[in-house]
User: Which sequence fits this backbone?
């Protein structure tokens, strides 16, 4: 009887821990949803470059793209190529 009680207590604690972990994972999922996927970032790169070339701050207008470019080297390279292409044609 005593052991059974011990076990259930421990099980309950483990379950509590699992719930805590689960909500932590959910939080991570939620931030991942806010972040752009490469595909979405690509779609906004034109716009982002436009704003930058106009002399405005693209990070203020498109903070998600800015964030993505900081995190993702592939897109950053893509963006730099786009930017130099645009500069070559407009400059
Ligand atoms: Zn990317």
Assistant:
């Amino acid at each position: 009887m005593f052991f059974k009680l011990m076990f259930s207590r421990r099980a309950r604690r483990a379950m509590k821990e699992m719930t805590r972990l689960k909500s932590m994972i959910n939080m991570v999922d939620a931030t991942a949803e806010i972040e752009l996927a490469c595909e979405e970032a690509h779609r906004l790169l034109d716009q982002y470059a436009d704003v930058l070339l106009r002399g405005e701050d693209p990070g203020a207008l498109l903070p998600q793209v800015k964030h993505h470019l900081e995190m993702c080297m592939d897109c950053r390279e893509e963006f730099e190529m786009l930017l130099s292409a645009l500069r070559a044609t407009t400059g």
Summary: The mean pLDDT is 83. The pocket of zinc ion is lined by residues 38, 41, 68, 72, 74-75 (CB under 6 Å). The longest helix spans residues 2-34.
